[in-house]
Amino acid sequence: MQSFATLTGHLARKTFLAPGLIALAFGLTVSAPISAQTVLKAAHSSSTTSTGHQALEFMAKELKEKTDGRITLQIFPSSQLGSEREQIESIQLGNLDLSFVSSAVLGAFNQDFFALDIPFMFKDREGVYRVLDGAIGTQLLASLDQVGIKGLAYWENGFRQLTNNVRPIRSPKDLEGMKMRTMENEVHIAAWKAEGANPAPLAFGELFTALQQGTFDAQEGPINLFYDMKFYEVQKYITRTNHVYSPWPLLINPDVYNGFSDQDRAIFDQVVKDATSYQRQLAQQADEKAVAAMPQVQIIDLTPEEHAAFADRMGPIYDTVKKKIGSEVVDAIVAEVNR
Ligand code: EAX
Predict the structure, then answer these.
(1) What pTM was estimated for this model as a whole?
(2) What residue's CA is closest to ligand 1, atom 3?
(3) Ligand 1 center to residue 272 CA distance, Å?
(4) Mind listing the pLDDT tens digit for each residue in 261-296?
(5) What is the side-by-side order of every strand in the sheet holding 237-240?
(6) Using CA atoms, how far apart are residues 100 and 102, in angstroms rounded to an integer?
(7) Which residues neighbour 98 within 8 Å (Cβ) at sequence distance 6 or greater?
(8) Mutate to test the pocket of ligand 1, among 163, 183, 185, 220 (most ligand atoms within 8 A of CB)
């Protein structure tokens, strides 16, 4: 069992000491079993209807039940605790316990994650899961230890699509010069420059307002998130480019994870596994449900030739990423995707 000092150290993340423990601290005899209750602060940048939020709610319920209330979750959605980059920094500092963020934002903390950002590299979910759930993905998550973060699993944000408010886009020519929001990721910015757009990064939580005010004409992201965030109120067209697959790595503060009792860590690990399959299941249905719910949005499906016109511009981006992180990871992903 943890020492009193460490238990008090965790008060920042709201550890409620059972009356028994306080009595013990003051040398009184106690009858009730000693147990510490830990409330984990979990944050994210999507809405309360997102598949990620639903999976956190699932985790909260499962953890409370399976640990007899020793571990519970307090969820902060919609960037309430800062942007995804700030959430990662808060986990490093121990001010936040748990979060799921787009892997694109992790590139600034660990460049190897840029390997996942090369557009048009992933073709389908089977290839994605072979990479993420295989040695490459596991190694990438483990590499976060070096920057004071424990990577737990890959939840699914989804395949990303190009959306805009100006015209139906079927070619890079249609996108030329369009002011476009990207995630805070240099590979994405370089890629959309190569496609002819005028890209600039912005935190997700500020995107709706920026689109509403016309700061940007275009953006890109999964259709289910587009729907969740009501972007259909400020964007008329979706071009199904499937240009990047966005995982949502689930992250935890390593001290919190290592601070669990062996019993609770085993329960926590199993709940993460169950929540991951639950979240992916939701995500796999979310895009089509969203399309059905947005008849006012024009969906453009590209022909293979039109799709290739976008993909053929990504050669230099492969070189840029290989120069930055070496070709080993990139080549391994390409081999696994095309296996
Ligand atoms: O949580 O910033 C974005 O567009 C991402 O999809 C973000 O991770 C959403």
Answers:
(1) 0.89
(2) 204
(3) 21
(4) 999 999 999 999 999 999 999 999 999 999 999 999
(5) 198-201, 179-182, 218-221, 161-164, 237-240, 298-301
(6) 7
(7) 40, 41, 42, 43, 56, 73, 91, 250, 251, 252, 253, 256
(8) 183
